[in-house]
Structure formats: C-alpha cells, structure tokens
Amino acid sequence: MIEPLILNLSARDIITPREDALLSSSIKRERWFVAGEDLVVQGTRPSYSTLLVDGFAARYKVLENGHRQITAIHIAGDFVDLHAFQLKTMDHGILALSPCHVAFADHSNLKILTETEPHLTRMLWLSTVIDGAIHREWIVAMGRKSAKSQLAHIFCELFIRLQVVQRVSDQCFIFPLSQAVLADVLGLSLVHLNKTLQKLRQEDVLTWSNRVITIIDWKKLQDVAEFDQAYLNLTREPR
Amino acid sequence: MIEPLILNLSARDIITPREDALLSSSIKRERWFVAGEDLVVQGTRPSYSTLLVDGFAARYKVLENGHRQITAIHIAGDFVDLHAFQLKTMDHGILALSPCHVAFADHSNLKILTETEPHLTRMLWLSTVIDGAIHREWIVAMGRKSAKSQLAHIFCELFIRLQVVQRVSDQCFIFPLSQAVLADVLGLSLVHLNKTLQKLRQEDVLTWSNRVITIIDWKKLQDVAEFDQAYLNLTREPR
DNA sequence: CGCTGCATTGAAGGCGGTCAAACTGCGTGG
DNA sequence: CCACGCAGTTTGACCGCCTTCAATGCAGCG
Asked: Which PROSITE patterns does the entry link to (chains A, B) (predicted)?
C-alpha cells in the first residue's frame, strides 16, 4: 500500500527494508474517497496524516467572494497533510480531484518514529520541505511568468513527479482535472486558461483529451516554462 | 544571540531552558551582512543553516528576462535556510534587505539534534512547516486577491510576525524595504504597487515614511486583506 | 430525448504592465 | 553653501493580458 511513498522517498535517499517495514506498520487503516469529496476539512484537528496511495488531490482555500485557490496538487505517494502533524489545525481543506485511495498514519505513531527513527524522521521532514520548494516555484510562476509559461510549468512539474511514482508511460499520463480546477490552480479564469491551453496545443507541445495528457515536445515545454527540476530534489543522497 | 529564535519557538510550544541551551550551543559563529549582499547563493550546498538574528532578508529567484520574484520575507528569529539542511542544494538565493546580523548552525550539529532531541527536532521541523503555510497564504493572495488586498495581507502578516519577536511598539515597526523590492514580493510592477499603496494611505489604514510603518486601522487592514492569522500557528501547545 | 457537466468561442471592459518623465531627499564634493 | 548625482518615489499616458458575461457546442447518461 505504501509503495508509491517508498518510490518517492527512495528517489531522494536509500530507504532500508527495515524502515520500509516500520513505515508500513505505521500506516494501516485505508479508505476510498470519490472525486469531489473532502479528504480533510479546513479547521479540523486530525489525529492522523493522510497518505495518498492513488489518485489526485488538491489543497485549497475559498475566499469570501467564492473564488477558490488551489495551493498544491498531490499525487500517489504524497502525504497530503503531513504538515498537520506539526501544525495541528488544518488551515485549508483537501479535496479529492479523482477517486482517491488513501491510508492513514496516526500522529501518535509518527511521534514515536520521531523518538526512535532519526533518519526516517528526516525523510518525512524532507517531504514537507519539498512541498515548500514546490510552493515557492508556484509563487515564482504566478508572480512573474506569463499564463502560458505558468501552465507549461505545471505540466512539467507533474510530468516529473508522476514519473517518480511510475504513473507515466510513453510520454502519457492520466490527468483527471477539469479545466475549471486547473484554472483554480493557476489563479486564472477558466476562459483564459482555455485559450492559453490552445496555444500550447496548436504549437504541438502536448495533447490533452479523455483525461490523458501526452507530452509531444518535452524540450519545448521546458523552454516555455523555464523549468528546472532541481527544486524537486531528485538526487539520491544521505539526508 | 538566539533570543528571537526562542521567542519564535516559544510562541508555539514550551521550550525548556535545557533545550534553549542546546540550541544556543549549536549556533555559535556569527556574521554581519550589509543590505544588498547575498546571505546564501543559489546553487550552493551550504554545510550550515543561517539564523537571522536581526534584520530583514528575502528568498528570491531571478528569471531569464531579468524579472525577480521574492518567495519569502524573513525577519529576526527566522532560520532563512533551515530547509537546506534537508534539501542540500539551494534552489534559490537569499538576500539581505537591510543590514543583517546572522548566526550559523552547522548541519552536523543539527543532525546530532535529530538523533538525540526529538522534541527540538519537531520544533525545527515545525518552523519549516510554518514557512510552507506562509507560502500557501501568498499563493492564495497572488492568485485570487486584488493587488490592494494582497498588499494589505503582507502588512498584516509582517505586523503579527514582528510582534512575536518584539519588533513592534505603538502600532509601529521598521520596514526597510524599498517599493521596488515590495513589488517583487507581490509580483506586481513598481508603478502599480505605488498606486495601490496610495489607496491604503488615502483610506487612513496605515502610514509609511522613513522606513517606519504605522498601522492606523488594524481592523480595516485585516478586512481589506481578508486576513486570518490562524496559519501562523501562534498557539502554545505540545508539538 | 433532454439534461447536465464540461469545453469552446466571442465581445467588451478593467486591472495591472510598460514607458517615460518629474520630483524628492540626501550624501558628496567643489 | 551650492551643485551634482543617485536612489527611491510619484505621476501621467497608453497598451495589453486577463476577467467577466454570455452564448454555443459537445459528449455522456438516465
């Protein structure tokens, strides 16, 4: 059940079979959500953290005027709310963007890991820190890149992250978001997102139909996005 | 030297005198930077993390077209690059926005703390996680708030954060950034930032002159910003 | 067959960007 | 003491990216 998590961590350091087993025994209960359901409700104080085993989920906030901003997209192998282990209260909600298979790690178990497993602790810490690096990259894209470049950036990032957890084959991956949701990721209007998307398609950079994205010209996509994957920390080294 | 750090951590949980001393002995070397200097250079692999003892600093990235985006503002008591302890390579630079007094914590010392001090480890982890929460709040503001609201939000956030480390008195705090820098924080142009700022001033929400900001109408500022300080996690509880 | 959710297109308008110039305060040097 | 330069702030004019509103197209499904 925790294979994608192990893939995620193993891309950054060596995880021993013992550590694998320890994690596995800390993450037992599982559950399925349907698309549109809240995995975690804003304002609650969950006593566990949620590992996304399969599917897509999003962290989001809704403003008074009803506008929504998505602050993170999560895929298989991501702890969607590991930070809540430290933060206690959820300052945002987490939404299933597709059918989601999740598993829960009780905070009490995680706390025990921090008392007894320094390396695993650092690896879990690392994964929250990578979340932060992704946030920063989004800030740069939102603040100083054109809509087209920003859109290309998201596709680049997801392409790489999905590769890590083996969700890409033949330059294709399943992408179950509607354009309305993607607009809320980028902070754009649905109309403008649609028009921007068509530019990328017309330039034969990618195709997107039937919830499947195919990257046609990876090099050009990266160029448009000014994408450098360094921030994803995909180097295996002692941490 | 680490008093502001202790103020920061103590606002979120009890730090024992023993832990205080341990931290203090892990953070020995100090240094001063002048405004405009890089505290940390993008692409390097520092073997230590940098605690900002006094002053203002910013994390930033520069794009190919020369535009700069600031992704975080740091004040006294912040570890500006604690995440580098996990990430190893700096994927962005950190700039002194004022004269900065900093102190260094060797990663080797931090690693020892993770092996022997689970509670302190969690507190340091917490501080990187709060950084992430701030990033998310910025994303929401950049994506879905008006320039005026976004600007008000930054002022709200800094006002609260500066209070925690006792840098506010009489609704006033020192704010050494130029408008050009603040524009790079918000992802706006300098011209538009200036005009937005004047709206806040004309509405008697705040004043800003001689590098000192005075909050005149805190309630209104929060309303404009749609600000809720929950994400800063200023509740003292066992973590 | 009509409903529903999603994608697409067009038109009009505004927020914010760019360019350019003037202004202010301040330290330096003549 | 004044001239000068410099950095930062302010203002005005024009432009364009992106938003909003509204309508149409399209596919899946009861």
From this structure: HTH_CRP_2 (PS51063)
